[in-house]
Amino acid sequence: MTINETATAPAEATASRPIARNITDLIGNTPLLDLDAFAQRRGAKASLIAKIEFFNPLSSVKDRIAWAIIREAEESGELRTGQRIVDITSGNTGVALAAIATSRGYPVKFYLGDNTSPDKRKLLETLGAELVTVPNSIFIDPEGLTKLVEQIEREHPEAYFTNQLGNPSNPTEHYRTTGPEIWRDTEGAVDVFVAGVGTGGTVSGAGRYLREQKPDVRIVVAEPGDASLPTEEQPYPAEIDGVHKVAELEDDQLPPNYDREIADEIISIEAEAAYAVARDVLRETGLFVGASAGATIGVALQLSQRDEFAGKTIVAIVPDSGERYLSAGVFG
Ligand code: PMP
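A: This is the predicted complex of the input protein with 4'-deoxy-4'-aminopyridoxal-5'-phosphate.
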């Protein structure tokens, strides 16, 4: 391990920050962290930067879209006082929705994949959400998903279905906030952007913004490797929580919020390799990232070793914290 010699003391309390009036005022403007020393020890020729989404108030990238969906549905009048909110979620969207919705007086009910980490489950229960478990394979099974959506609408005709997989407020919010933040904070230096696909909102929205600023920016999707494919013996294998396969899927198996045209490249990484990266990042830098960030940083590391990216700047999204995976076998 090396000590970062450029480390500085915290800034003195000179730059003032307004007192937030609502928790939602604290969403976004998450920090970037330079992981160059970590990457260089692994032969990187490019600069590697992490965008740390666990600085959001409910500690994940999903705060952005949960608030955007609720805000826009309230503004349009689709979501009314006291109405129940329902959605299908792998955890983080549920956590953000539950906290924001409950504090605004909406009860919440979520349909959760059966590979969701026990920590996220506990958290959702603590936040007052009602939970229904569904097979995780439903996320790549168009028929199963359609049936589930129909079931939800049948059982809860009165509810507001936030529909993170298809709600346009999701990619639009990443286009409005995540992409511009990366562009602003790297001062336009970003050459490569790496994200995983759950709903596809992050990569499609932020990716579209970055491509508009710099047409030759490379957008790369990190997807789970083949060990994450369901088999007969293991119908619901350990997957990289929150992130699904995309490359071999048909259009109707992909979430509507994933823009199939956005990725220049899709690179797979096995769950175990992603977990190892998350453990290394923690040990060597002190940054405690979650499972899907192990995948994005792992893929960013591979890219950073390529000659074509020598001297370039790679930004990897860190969707959530390792604290959401303490009982999930990621950190032992
Ligand atoms: N990582 C984690 C931990 C997530 O919860 C999600 C969302 N399910 C993602 C990555 C993927 O983000 P998106 O839905 O924007 O594609």
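The chain has a mean pLDDT of 92. Residues 62, 90-92, 196-202, 241-243, 290, 292, 319-320 surround 4'-deoxy-4'-aminopyridoxal-5'-phosphate (CB under 6 Å).
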